[in-house]
């Protein structure tokens, strides 16, 4: 993840990954048949952390606002690495919805759990809510370098809260 974040997907070789991991290139190929599989594993790891963040937020929250307080804090951990890895993945597979769904499927299911738990507070349908989350969170990944972390968290929390709990016009 570190190499993909620093250099981008194209400028990282399997040799680079093996060197950083302090293993032989053959060891890498024991687990992955190509570099793209390594990127997919990185993205799967990121989405698993999002899933854990949602689970934690669901356990600890009593309403949408407290859910967002916990979830956004979790989501923005390691944003400097995660954002670049996710963008590299998106550039590689943006036309292959099945690959994207494969790594993000559990995340979507957990978002459905959030939606179902707080359906009374959420004023948009699930598809819209999911799109709003994706939009706000991806925008936060674009803005993290130019905003103070606490300001960014506040903007994302408030933006998500008002966009999903206000009645659409």
Overview of the molecule:
The protein has 169 residues and is mainly α. 77% of the residues lie in helices and 0% in strands. It has helices at residues 2-7, 14-21, 25-31, 35-60, 64-75, 79-93, 97-117, 126-143, 149-165. The model has no long low-confidence stretch (mean pLDDT 90).
Please give the structural blueprint:
Blueprint (H helix, E strand, L loop, with lengths): L1 H6 L6 H8 L3 H7 L3 H26 L3 H12 L3 H15 L3 H21 L8 H18 L5 H17 L4
Helix pairs in contact: 4-5, 4-6, 4-7, 5-9, 8-9
The named CATH superfamily: Tetracycline Repressor, domain 2
CATH class: Mainly Alpha
> What number of structural domains do the residues give?
1
Q: N- to C-terminal separation?
A: 42 Å
Unreliable stretches (pLDDT < 50, length at least 5) are none
- Tell me about the largest β-sheet: none
Hey, roughly how much beta strand do the residues contain? under 5%
The total strand number stands at 0
Estimated structural class: mainly alpha
SS field, number of helical segments = 9
> What general outline do the C-alpha atoms trace?
elongated
Radius of gyration: 17 Å
Q: What is the correct CATH architecture?
A: Orthogonal Bundle
Assembly form of the protein: single chain
Helix content: over 70%
